[in-house]
Design a protein that fits this description.
Elements: E1 2-6, E2 15-23, E3 29-33, E4 39-43, H1 46-51, E5 55-62, H2 70-78, H3 90-114, H4 122-130, E6 132-139, E7 142-149, H5 154-174, H6 180-195
Helix pairs in contact: 3-5, 5-6
Amino acid sequence: MIEERLRLQGWSRERRVVLVRKHIKDNVARQSRQSNGQLQLALADMQVLDADVLWAYTVLVSDVDLGFCQNGFDELKNQWGLSGFTTQDINRCQTTARAGALMYKWWSWYCHAAHPSARMEAVTSRPLLLAAVGKAANHGGQTQIYLTPLHGKVQTIKALIVNIRAALQHVKSIAEQLPGIDQWACLLHYICQRFAPTITTPGLQIALAVSG
């Protein structure tokens, strides 16, 4: 991995460019053509990999110097479908990237609420938390959702759902006292205090104003 600062043609300013080279050792397929012209896709065995040195290159361009965001880039590319997406239409690129980043952000907060003590990646958290059948029941002006997990780790899922329910109950207990926009801020503050108690979330209202 190397990095440099470049200003390519058409750029308004110099930017940080990171070039990553990774040795490919598995999950490789070689395309060839038979004598009759038929395309053939052959998986490369260890002998082929030992004979040929194969590399995968990734170029990252950023305006910020944040080394800890590497996992985020990896998840967005390989677990949220942004790997290999490219088009000459900048509006489509921005819309797709922003939509993917928004879903990644929402799911990350959801997983932090479920498992505050450890970070859960999408490749493992989605099968755990989405493998369930849900049923909504209305009674007394309230709607309750009942989940039936289909995953083998039922007890683990139950513990995660209990944590999520506690987070939502925390917001619900004071929701009527908050403006609608502050309910989301209240939920984020609750989640942050679970996995990073020493870090306060800027801009959040901790105490509620009372009259009299």
